[in-house]
Amino acid sequence: MNLESLKQGWESILQNIINISLSDVVDIACVSVLLYYLYVFVRERRASKLAMGVILLFTAQIITGIFHLYVMQYLLQNIFQTGLLLLVVLFQPELRSMLEKMGGQSLKGIRGIGETKDNSDALHMIEEGSEAVQDMSDSKTGALIVFERGTRLGDQEMTGTIINADPESFLIKNIFFNKAPLHDGAMIIRKNRLHAAGCLLPLSENPDIIKDLGTRHRAGIGMSENSDAVVVIVSEETGTVSLACEGKLSRGYTRETLQEALRGYLMPETETTVSMAKRTLNMLKLPVQGEKKQENGEKKHESEK
Predict the structure, then answer these.
(1) Mean pLDDT throughout 15-29?
(2) pLDDT above 50: residue 299
(3) Residues 94, 162 within the same domain
(4) Which of 86, 202, 250, 262 is 20–30 Å from 223 (CA)?
(5) Which residues pair with 230 in a beta bridge?
């Protein structure tokens, strides 16, 4: 009898597989993509803690129904009636960041169809930028350079001054010279050109960032959390070169390793360049939380600016 039931169940599964139509495949694929983005959204952001709270509320709702806890069940039902609006309010920063990244990546892929890109401008910009960063690291000149990618940084651009200049190392160093009027802010590089300087960036609200990191580093991490930009930071206290991408900070770059990482992130994506950038990031990545730094005076110094 058990074997007969198993046989019938197996035949039913095979029949359902045979009867799958194209629309069913598309439906399953769309749901899979939606669940994947939902998983990434919850995993990589502060939303994971809020999502855990929502799951606990759903669990409490089920428990109150099983044990007939009518007062609690009534309260939870009223909470869930406005739950969608409440979730939108709670997750507003994370939802905006996720949608911006999704839209930026999609449009980037569409623009790339049939487009022949000249890598010489990107290579020149990366070489000049890396040279300037190395010189500023040696002289312990603080710098914050944002390399724009798919997400437009119009809000940050409006807080600074448009310069629209060729990427030359001497110009980058002049802008970040501590007596220059635009040094106390971020530089935005767009389409391989120095687009704007003196820009204000959003500070990261991640509570896991160690307290020794100053305002400049928090701004770099915050910008990478709110967009797909790649941000290079030069410490004014130690001269350490850091790179922030997707909310993660890696440190200890030299001119060569920075060039390799930037080529992987900013030039046309190929399997080789992307793997090179990720390998460099993994080699240099240091944990942001619980890490001991020799920058105890940096927070105070940078916050005064």
Answers:
(1) 83
(2) no
(3) no
(4) 86
(5) 147, 245
- Model confidence at 101: pLDDT above 50: yes
Q: At which of 94, 111, 128 does a domain end? A: 111
Q: Tell whether the torsion through CA atoms of 297, 299, 301 and 304 is positive or negative.
A: negative
Task: Identify the residue whose tokens are 């710098």.
Answer: 143
Total count of domains within the chain: 2
Q: Domain of 15?
A: 2-111
pLDDT digits 0-9 by tens, 229-241: 999 999 999 999 9
Q: Do residue 78 and residue 138 come from a single domain?
A: no
Distance CA 126, CA 169 (A): 10
User: Does residue 24 sit in the same domain as residue 156?
Assistant: no
Residues 22 and 51 in one domain: yes
Domain boundary among 84, 111, 138: 111
Is residue 189 exposed (0-12), middle (13-18) or buried (19+ Cβ within 10 Å)? buried
Q: Who has greater pLDDT, 129 or 19? A: 129
Q: What is the pLDDT of residues 259-270, one digit of tens each?
A: 999 999 998 654
Residue 104 has what pLDDT?
55
pLDDT band, residue 289 (cuts 50/70/90): very low
pLDDT at 286: 45
Q: Are residues 81 and 151 in the same domain?
A: no
Which range, 29-33, 67-71, 89-93, is most confident? 29-33
74 and 33 together in one domain: yes
